[in-house]
């Protein structure tokens, strides 16, 4: 399968993230780069600007900007040309999908199909063959895996934002090693420790962020929340929010509830959970007898 | 009239354009352009200070960690005093060093070797950089784009189990360095001062350097011979070197930034002069024996520039070992520095792969009112004038038709994504 990678306004983070895919060498045997921003490819960028043939999957990363000029041609012209030909279009990373961080830099910056949560409509004609792979950056497994599924002709169930459910049906909360502290509503968390949940004080968005960060671990090993960093919600349309390190609260209760949990049910649950007071959660794990 | 040619430089971080001017067959002047900016400095304005820890790694996909550490240092500088354990400091140094290593491997195999027309198997870039990423992830949760360094320390706790995993990968990295780049004893190589000794070894580094000699390119790409290093402490020393004159103290007061018409990158100078920053500058200030020898013979040419970058790898590997050995896991990872000051200014400096990176933040009424980032690219690839060119421009000027202009340019390890204004 032939892939063509076009970057709009990007930090190149998605490019480097893919290079960390543990099975990269094995994986790449099934694919050919018509163009990749770093790796050896069949064509130069100038050839891509002039038009090359054979693009099966168009990969777009970076934030779009009106009148964005890459070299000799507007980015939109390249996007349209290759989107017409490609069988699939992947918007890779939160920038290309929803606009992301750089969309905050200037008015008129957007993702391909979305501007934050709003559908843009400009590229409606290729919506049906697009797949969203948000993340800042994308998890390499999600990108490499989606491409392998496409190559195998497997159907890929998508959610309403066109994210593959295999990777985005989970929440980041799912698999977090701090989960027990969340369940029993233990609301103290200190940085630099193995214990404690960051939902209550430190802005963790894991309970309502779609992503595999704690299922398919990063670099095969770890995740932000396991390490003690709040999930910043980087796969979601509203990334980045303001005040990322603290939890907005209303009358002492976090304003935003875990995915699908009604506020009232949460309050009942929290009351019961808190009544347990399980001693082992109040000591450092390594000192527990 | 001078003939001109506009060339796209790709397969760097992003793309750049160079407008070459020729006199006959010689390049008489070159203008370097970065077309787009993502406006990170503007995005930060009005935000809570800690948000910068999340936004700033996204300045650059390959140097994001350097931006994180520069950010946390700038934020900590806003406090009167921040209690920071030696452990937290050492772990930050570890992850920072690993980012340099993955960058150097990628640059050598994905950028330099193909331009020399030598075989460049991508797995020789990918395996070590992936390992470095795993080692960062062990300490910092993930790579790229984590925010694990916060004022007062680091977010994670490190157990002896993490350290075991870390050390196992470090051994593998050392082995890969010897198997692919140069087969030498690391300890001895750091002290090596003879070019011939380096050239006589097995590996892709001596192969590349022999190839450069064979083509007669060893003196090509000489530049200003002005070097600057802002980030002291750790493995590097701050200072500047002009020719071989060394001066150790650097004062940010003399740093000047200028915006340029039609260019997303600003240009920077120190006391009115342009400087080169990066591995060659660091080696010149540190008086690294082998690099001084290369400089004595071939000046600040592409030969010295390439050698200096790769010669950082064994030093970094040994540094990582020393840091592991010195790590006292019983120390705190994090000590709460207390509430963020409502008004303050702070500066954070690190040595990133490509050179000195400087972050300056101003906080007013609890919010970021101003944020300035000076990246290595601005030093090396700025746009000066014909009479007073910036380092990469100077290196390109005078090149003849058969000289490898693209290699000369890319030997500076060009990055265009870090335009931040
Ligand atoms: S830290 Fe975040 S992801 Fe982990 S359990 Fe708490 S809310 Fe969930
Ligand atoms: S944990 Fe959250 S912020 Fe971090 S990469 Fe995953 S989704 Fe993004």
Description:
The complex is a heterodimer of chains A (289) and B (421). Chain A has 289 residues and is α/β, with parallel strands linked by helices. By secondary structure, chain B is of the alpha+beta class. In chain B, the strands form five sheets. Chain B has a three-stranded antiparallel beta sheet. Chain B has a three-stranded antiparallel beta sheet with strand order 6-7-8, with helices on one face. A three-stranded antiparallel beta sheet of chain B has the order 11-12-13. Chain B starts with a strand and ends in an 11-residue tail after the last helix. The model of chain B has no long low-confidence stretch (mean pLDDT 95). Chains A and B meet through α1 and α9 of A and β1, β2, α1, α2 and α4 of B. One iron/sulfur cluster (SF4) binds next to α8 of chain A. The site of one iron/sulfur cluster has 13 residues of chain A, from α9.
Topology of this protein?
The complex is a heterodimer of chains A (289) and B (421).
Chain A: E1 2-7, H1 13-19, H2 24-28, E2 32-35, H3 45-50, E3 57-61, H4 75-85, E4 88-92, H5 93-98, E5 114-115, E6 118-119, E7 130-133, H6 140-151, H7 165-168, H8 179-183, H9 224-227, E8 249-250, E9 253-254, H10 263-276
Parallel strand pairs in A: 1-2, 1-3, 3-4, 4-7
Antiparallel strand pairs in A: 5-6, 8-9
Helix pairs in contact in A: 1-6
Chain B: E1 3-12, E2 14-23, E3 26-33, H1 40-44, H2 52-55, H3 64-76, H4 86-116, H5 123-140, E4 149-150, E5 153-154, H6 160-181, H7 186-191, H8 195-199, H9 204-215, E6 226-229, E7 239-242, E8 245-247, E9 255-258, E10 267-270, H10 279-286, H11 289-298, H12 302-326, E11 344-352, E12 355-364, E13 367-374, H13 376-380, H14 391-396, H15 405-410
Antiparallel strand pairs in B: 1-2, 2-3, 4-5, 6-7, 7-8, 9-10, 11-12, 12-13
